[in-house]
Amino acid sequence: MVSKKFLYLMFAISIICVFSGCTKKQTDNKSPSVTENAATKEKSNDSNKEKPVNLVWMTDSTWTDYLSESRKKAINERIHELGYNYNLSFYGLNAESYESYQNGIDKAKKQGIGDLMWTGYGDAEKDGTYIRQIKQGNLLSLSKWLKSENGKKLKKEYGKNVWKRITYKGKIYGFYNEEEQADSTYLLINAEKIASKPDFMNADKLDIKKLCKWVIENKDISELPLYLLWNDSGEYFSDRFTNLGYIGICDGVYMSDKGIIQNIWENKDVREFWISMAQLKREGLLSCDKNEDYSEALSGNFMAMIATMPKEIMDGNYLYLEDGGKIPVYSRKLSSRYIDKMENAVHGIASWTKHPKESKNLLMLVNTDKELANLICFGEEGKDYSLKNGKVVGEKHVSDYCPAKLANTKFSIYEANGEKDKAKYYYDGNKEYSMSPAAGFVPNKKVVEKNKKILNEVDVFYQKLLESDEEPEKMIDQFVKKLKMEKYPDILNKIQKQYNKWKRGKK
Q1: CATH architecture entry for 183-336+443-507
Q2: pLDDT tops 80 at residue 41
Q3: Which DSSP symbol is given to 324?
Q4: Cα 200–206–207 angle (5° rounding)?
Q5: SS3 state at 378
Q6: Whole-model pTM?
Q7: Distance from the Cα of residue 363 to its chain's centroid
Q8: Which part of the chain has CATH 3.40.190.10?
Q9: 221-262, pLDDT tens digit by residue?
C-alpha cells in the first residue's frame, strides 16, 4: 500500500515539472532586442557575481580635472548598457610639456598603472610622441585585432588616409580620430562686393600676375583688397610652401611629389607667388601683418582672400562665417595640402595592461557609440552643457581638442556650422587630401641640428620679402647665391640620400 507521504511527494514533483516546462516554452518563444540581450548579459554577470573589469585611461589632466562624479557614473552606465562589464576611470598626467607627460607615463609604467594611453602632444624636435612610445615598447600592436569583429567596427569609422598616418613599419599601434584632415588653399572673392566672376578664376592654372593686376584695378573697393592668411584663424603663413603643393620634410627642407628634394626658392611657382605678394605689399594692397586682427575678414568684410581652410567652412559658392552666417563667394581651389607627417596625439593600449582585449573593445565603443562619445567629450546635457541651435553652450570645459581626442568627435553634438552634417564633412575631407610619400620619414637629427640656422633662414625669408622695399626678384636671386655659399645644396643632397634609403626600406 502506497503511503500518503509518497503520494504528496509525487504530486509536488509533477507540479514543478509542469511549471518548469511552461517557463522554458515562454523563454524559447521570446525574441529579445539587442538592448535586452545586453541587459540580460549584465544581469547574468551580476547573478554570477562577476566583478567588472576596471580599466584606466591615461590622458591630459587638464581634461580629467573637469570630470564630475556624476559624469563618470554616466559614462560607465552607458558602457554597461552596451553590454560590457567594464568600469572606466581616467588618470590625468601633466601635459604642459613633452617631458612632463613622458615622465608621467614612465612613472605609471613602473607602478603598473594604466590600460589605455594617450601618447601626448608632438615634439617637433624629436620623432614625435607616437613613434617614440612605439620605440620604447609602450604600445601594443592593434593590427591583428583590427581584423576581428570589434576591430573592424573601429576601423571602418575612419578613412584609409587616417590609418596610413598611424602605420609604422607596417603595423598600427593606436587610433587617431581627427575630425577634419583636409585643409585646402582657396582664392576667394566676395561676390557681395564684386558683380561678376573674374576671367582668371576659370583658367586651368591661376595666373598670379593677372590676379595682382586685378587687385590693383579694384583697389578702391576695399581698404585692403587682398588678405593673405593660411587658415581660418588667421595664423601667419604656417604652411607657406606646403599649401602651395610642396611637401615638408623638416624646417627648411621641401620635396616635390616626385620625391625630389629641392631648394624651394629656385622653384618657379614659389618665386612668382612671393614676388607678386611682395609687390602688392609695397603698394599697400596686401594684408599680411602677423599682428593684424583678421576678424574683419573672417566676418565677411573683405574683397579677396587667399586662405587655407577646412572643407566644413567652404560649401560651393558660400563661405561660412564665425557668427554662423554665410556670404556668397567666387572660389577657386589652388591646392590641397599634403599630409606630410606621422600623427602624434594617438590613443593606444599600454603594453603593461592586464586587460588587452577589454581595452581594445573600449577603443571601439568610444568611437562607434554616439551617446558614449558625447558623454566623454561634453558630459551630461543639463548638467555640463545646454544645446542651442545644435551647438553646445555653457560648457564647463573648452573642447575644441576634446578631450585630447578621446572619443569620435565626427558624430559628436557639435555640427559643422550648426547646420551641416559633420560626419559627411569628415568623410569628404578625408577623400580630398593626399598622403605624402615622405610620411613617417625623419631625417638624420645631426644633419638638421648642425644646419639649423640656415634651414630656419629658408623658412622665414618670405618675411624679408614682404617687409623690405627692395626689388623682390633681386632679393631672391641674392638669397639663392647665399644658400649656395652656405652649402645648402649639400645639406639637401644628404637628406635626399637618407630619404632614398628610407624609401627603399619600405618596399
Answers
A1: 3-Layer(aba) Sandwich (3.40)
A2: no
A3: S
A4: 75
A5: coil
A6: 0.66
A7: 16
A8: 53-179+342-435, 183-336+443-507
A9: 887 788 887 654 544 455 677 667 788 888 899 988 888 999
